[in-house]
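Structure ticket #2291
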Amino acid sequence: MSEKEKLIEMIDDMPAYKIGYVLAYVQGITAEDDPSESVAAYNELLQMRKPLSGELDYDKELAEARMEKYESIN
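Resolution: structure written out below.
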């Protein structure tokens, strides 16, 4: 029995509510990918990058981020 036949048999035995998951997965792996979109997005991100001036104080950055995120809780 070929792998395709095994897959078809497994799908035939599968509950109906799981078929949507299988369909979504198969559509995802068979979709035509357009790498030019990904490359363009990556290049745009590279252009947005800014060099850091001086050393980065990770503890200070973390403390500021926490304060900004959680200051409304107090």
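Closing remark: The longest helix spans residues 16-30.
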